[in-house]
Amino acid sequence: MTPPYTMEHVLAQAKTLPALPQIVARILEMLGNEETNAATLSKHIISDPAVVVRLLAAANAGAIGAAGRVDSVQQAIMLLGVSRVRDITLATAIIDRFTAKPPFNARRLWLHSVGVAICAQEVARIAHIDADVAYTAGLLHDVGQLLLFSVDPDTYARVLTLRAESDGDIVDIERQVLGVDHAHVGGELARLWKLPEAVADAIAAHHVTAESEPENEMADAVHVAEVMSHALNLGGGEGARVPRLSDLSCARMGVEWHRFAEGFQLIEARFIGARITLGL
Question: What is the CATH architecture of 101-280?
Fold first, then answer.
């Protein structure tokens, strides 16, 4: 079958992607649960060796001297904190499994996605919305690109070439060439995976084009975070274009840039730390 594609056709090919790891579903269930603690998390995390390795590496990077050696998941959680452990676990479980062959640059996609996830947390905190959900939505906001590439690698490679050669928005180019765009595909994929509706809705609505605005506050957070991550050059790659920023999204999120800029160094430091921890 050749383009234009329908959403139904694209989603029917979702089996070309790996299954969502069990640990991701468990971690997502714990989002917002105040009873989540080190013991509860560690019971789930020890079943995934890749996650264990990354957590211990991150914990030991912060340990002081030989006496500070961290050799158990529960110790790592106590040192890093539940929120950071959730971030590392989600990112590791997803990034290690969702890759793609050239010319698609999966590493760059995940670098950018981690940057957006970190920025989304900060935007969410300002807006007093769930920062953990914002991180998840930011991390997965471009997952639809992986599915579109897996459905038709040659045509999606042409989309990426057209984007590099023009000043157009990628979702506009995707719609013109493929008939669908990665934001809405990603949102429907998240629903297929039974992710929280807030995450799916934010993924679907995070792109702002000339005729649209985000449809909910979590989408606002991811949209603002994506613009911010490009402006701070957090993994977007050489020549990456800063997307158009919605003033309405900024206002709804309560972002005052002259104040928010004070936290840019911390965001950049967190991104560097995440990049090292995740091997990106």
Answer: Orthogonal Bundle (1.10)
